[in-house]
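Good morning C.,

I know you're traveling, so I'll keep this short. The sequence:
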Amino acid sequence: MRIVQKNTKLIVVVILIALAVFIAAIVTKAKIPLEQKTAEETFRTSGDAWSINVKPVEIKRNFPLRTSAWWKNAIINPCNALLYPYPYLLALRKNEIGIGVPSINAQDNAVITTKESDLLIQTPVTDRCLVENQNTLAVTFVQNFEKEDFIKITASKGLGFINISTNLNKLTLAGPITKIENYNDKVLLISSNFKKYGILFDRTPTISAQNTLVLNNNDQEARLSIFYVPANLDISKILTGVYTNYPSIGSRLDIDRGQTKNIISSQKNTIWYLLPTQKKALVIKNIELLDNSNIATLRGNMTPVIGSELSLLYAVNKPLDIDSVKLADSERANLKKLFDEDMKIVSDKIFSTEAGSYWQGKLLFKYSNLMYVAHLLEETENYTRLKDMLTVELRDWSNYTGSTDKKYFIYDEQYGGLISSKPEYGNETYSDHHLQYGYFIYAYTAVSSYDNDFRIQNKPIVDYLIKDIANTDEQSKYFPYQRHFDMFEGHGYASGLNYFVDGNNQESSSEAVNAWYSSYLWEKLNNNPVLANQYLAMLTLEQNFANNYYFNNPNTNIMPAEYKHDSVGILWEGKYDFATWFGNKKEEVLGIQLIPFTLVSYYLKNPRIEQAVS
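The tokens, ready to paste straight into the viewer:
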């Protein structure tokens, strides 16, 4: 089957046929601290019902932790975590902090980063590690020692330096260091592992023969920033964008005149390193692009740029509207034939009480699309039957009726999210929530498109499903901001509260696309243009990332030549795998990046993908 067509109309027909053939996912119910008190009985709180075998990292502020953020390993093992704030590798350990720029090891079926630190900062031993702050891009970790001593580490993906503040008077440098020299009275240059790093201090330090830094801070807080020095980049230029007082940074998304705009901002001119896809999208205005000093990373050559606001623009792939689809007689006949075949296996008991949060959602997705096709074909009897089946099933998920109920969501007060009563694939540890709940949101939206009373009645649960996977409110006390979406890289991560040495990962880019697409459809249906634009922007970025990374776009020069494939099955922060969680056949690796098909799947109109699946 050729998925890509040159004619948009034919693409629509192919997608509609696919909608009638492919399956989707499941959901549950929860009791949330609802603003609408009348809906409170709909849900159930976790209480002792769920035991997630992860001790929550201590926090100083009352905010839900981002369980799939780039630093989620530090939630699980806060005093022993390996993190990937590109272009750096950051190791947080109970007696040291490790920093490095990892090298790349490419093989036939995988591309892997090295895990060793180039520079170590040795500290007193502690088991008291906590998260002090988090925002759209950055996080601050704190390690507490005896006598109220502390060290804080602040980092962000893309930022050109890692910031440290401490009231300790001495820090010891270690690692494969070959040379330490003064650049000036507040900057040290360190050669280690054939690389060069700099440390900017807020005061003049002294250094002993044993590589011990004396900060001369009289037990007051001292600040320093560690930065990599690429070849061909003058240190004086780097220092125009490095600070010991950590600048306030952030990222926001918007839709502007048919383009998705991702704004990365800082209080001052700051040095950033951009991915190849970001460099291509960068608006060159009031910034300095340092194009001859790239750093080779797993995500391709990252380019340094100095500025206070970086504007990245991407063309919006606006979803097609099913109500505008017009079929020729031959197309209608072909679609009708396939629809009739699918309807032969439709059963009023198709929604099993045993299926869990993934497979039940996929069924809801499949039958929602059959309903759409029935409506398009003016199959009134079948349309009514499918809509009634979906209505009953979705209402069951929406309403917790007591101990005999099998289908509902549970609000987990520990981490601020919805857990399925029948979790699958790590749902109970916040894995894959967007990949699973996107199917539910899609199904609720489909029925609501034809039934306004249903939309009103079920709006609370759908709103909370969306907040679980993609909350846009940074001040929310109930759900973390953007649980799954990486605001720097521009795509989703899925692994939740599961520690992996290779960091976060996401397998199915197409299911992530469906999550943001479904959220967009829901907000559009409910006349919420601001939120609809947020999810349309996320949808655009996820599609762009998939086309360049999951499908290995040769124009971006991301994958080393040693990697022998046109696609990636699992994308990690620390490696790429030509494999899935269920196999490593080519059709499995490609298939998990293609389905589910929807009316936004025309982003797959890509010659490389067409060649791969033909």
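Safe travels,
E.
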